[in-house]
Specification:
The structure holds 2 protein chains of 2 kinds. By secondary structure, chain A is an all-beta fold. Chain A is 0% helix and 52% strand. Chain A has no helices and 11 strands. In chain A, strands 2, 4, 5, 6, 9, 10 and 11 form a 7-stranded mixed β-sheet that branches. A 4-stranded antiparallel β-sheet of chain A has the order 1-3-8-7, with no helix packed on it. By secondary structure, chain B is mainly β. In chain B, strands 2, 4, 5, 9, 10 and 11 form a 6-stranded mixed β-sheet that branches. The model of chain B has no long low-confidence stretch (mean pLDDT 95). The chains are: A mainly beta, B mainly beta. Chains A and B meet through strand 4, strand 5, strand 9 and strand 10 of A and strand 4, strand 5 and strand 10 of B.
């Protein structure tokens, strides 16, 4: 089945630094990947849609300059949290669909990245 | 504005019995629905889906029912097993997109 790999699984950084999270589709090509964020005991909130070869589209309320997304190839999308602050501490998860399975293909998720900003 | 709601934050069920997880949505245009299972510190794992043109889909111990008029779907797990203990999310897709809107999740605990 479709496998999505995310790295790192956890990261601790100091306030003001930037952190890059990678998301790879291992056995399929993903022209579109999705970045979600989950706060404790809350739902998964879609942050942005990453489009291969073009700009990402951000959901309302998500700062594009804060959360930089790059989708340079059909198997890799990166999310960079710039100038991280403690309130950015969260669980970030990427996902993608294998469109070879058709329109009704489910999202496959990476294992997530726990970001802690001190 | 929560378009997809799971009103029960938690549910406890005895092993071997049926688990019923519920999900309500507000947008009648949603055309595809998914259920995911999630363990702590892991990404969600896809369980089962249903298209809006159907009212039932079954896969092993998992069955999803869709009631479009009530804008309600449910996931039945039978028989429930301790390994089913996790948080379950329903998700709905607006037509013409690959985006999904997730519910708030229900924590299922299956008691041995």
């Amino acid at each position: 089945g479709a496998v999505v790999s995310q790295h790192p699984s956890w990261v601790i950084c100091k306030s003001g630094t930037s952190v890059k999270i990678e998301c790879r589709s291992l056995d399929f090509q993903a022209t579109t990947m999705f970045w979600y964020r989950q706060f404790p005991k809350q739902s998964l909130m879609l942050m942005a849609t990453s489009n291969e070869g073009s700009k990402a589209t951000y959901e309302q309320g998500v700062e594009k300059d804060k959360f930089l997304i790059n989708h340079a190839s059909l198997t890799l999308s990166t999310l960079t949290v710039t100038s991280a602050h403690p309130e950015d501490s969260s669980f970030y998860i990427c996902s993608a669909s294998d469109v070879r399975q058709g329109q009704n293909s489910p999202l496959h998720f990476g294992n997530g990245t726990r970001l802690t900003v001190t | 504005d929560q378009q997809v709601k799971q009103n029960s934050p938690s549910l406890s069920v005895q092993e071997g019995r049926i688990s019923i997880l519920n999900c309500d949505y507000t947008n009648s245009m949603f055309d595809y629905f998914l259920w995911y299972k999630k363990y702590p510190a892991e990404g969600p794992t896809f369980l089962i889906s249903i298209s809006s043109i159907k009212d039932k889909n079954e896969d092993g111990r998992f069955t999803v029912f869709l009631n479009k008029s009530a804008k309600h779907l449910s996931l039945h797990i039978v028989p429930s097993q301790p390994g089913d203990s996790a948080v379950y999310f329903c998700a709905a897709r607006p037509p013409g997109t690959y985006k999904y809107i997730f519910g708030t999740g229900t924590r299922l605990k299956v008691l041995a």
